[in-house]
Amino acid sequence: MKMLVPVDTNPYSAVAARKAAKLAINTWADVTILGIQTAGSAANNMPDAALSSAMSAYCKAFLSNAGEMESPYGDGEPAPWRATGNGVWETSIASETAKKSLRLMVKKGSTLDMILEQAAQDGSDFIVIGSPAKVADPGWTGELDLTAKVANKAPCSVLVVKEEKSVNTVMGILDQDHVSQESLELINQMVTVHQAELKIVGLATAKGLDERVEMKMGEVLDYYASKGVKAWITMVKENEMEDFAARAAETSLVGIWLGKKSFLAKIFSKDRVSQLINATNSSVLVLK
Fold first, then answer.
1. Is the pLDDT of residue 159 over 70?
2. Residues near 143 by Cβ (< 8 Å), separated by ≥ 6?
3. What domains are defined for the chain?
4. What digits encode the pLDDT tens for the residues 42-91?
């Protein structure tokens, strides 16, 4: 797995780095921590001092939360920043014991554009990004509604991390006909990291459930049973799903599967996904 963690100098990025570390250690992901700075904000052809300092702190927090003896990222320190051209600086953890990579990168440009560009270049499977608790709070300077835009436009799944708080329930709202293996595993990782209860929510159309739906939900239960995870299944009518998700997001970590063939994508437009992300203090997982 390849994980991208965009950060800035605000406290929510520290929360995201810690959450990313816990997920990364479970999946042995190759990780890129990406900072964005505006053109002209660097001095002496080096990354912005405040941003690079914050990223160094995030890296230390990441390594601390990823563990020590069993960490695949080794026990080294970041090497000095090196310019790689076109307003890009990179560094990485120098460790002979590392089995997976932990890279720090700073790029100049539009925050949204640079995040999407880096995700495409890395072939990222997962983005973990911090967000202000409410959309009106200051954060991600110059990019209004950034985290919702990333969730909507990224080519991979995105976890929008809000406040650092206890999660007792992971609510996986999954498409009944097209449930990808990757989405199931990401939900499983959320359950493992939070040691939470899992509830799988399916759509009930006006015609009720058909045999294919029952078979699919049975496969989902079997998958989680094989992982030692007890899952509960709930059916919600399609015309009630949007309100159900909004209520659930107040107390649970909500995962919404929005693959290209997903029927849920017809219910949750990009605007509605943005509203859900912005309206709740809880983290939201958009699965693709």
1. yes
2. 110, 111, 112, 149
3. 2-161 (3.40.50.620), 169-287 (3.40.50.620)
4. 555 678 888 999 999 998 888 887 665 567 887 777 888 888 877 899 99
List Cα–Cα distances, 249 to 60, 171, 172, 244, 278, in angstroms. 30, 8, 11, 9, 11
Strand-pair category, 169-173 with 197-204: parallel
CB-CB contact of 125 with 3 (8 Å): yes
Please give the structure tokens belonging to residue 22.
Answer: 């816990």
Residue the block writes with tokens 């941003």: 51
The gap between the terminal CA atoms of the chain, to the nearest Å, is 14
Cα 142 to chain centroid, rounded: 21
- 116-143 residue pLDDT tens: 999 999 999 999 999 987 655 667 876 7
Packing angle between helix 241-248 and helix 270-279, nearest 10 degrees? 30
**Contacts of residue 282, Cβ cutoff 8 Å, sequence gap at least 6:** 162, 163, 165, 167, 249, 250, 251, 252, 253, 254
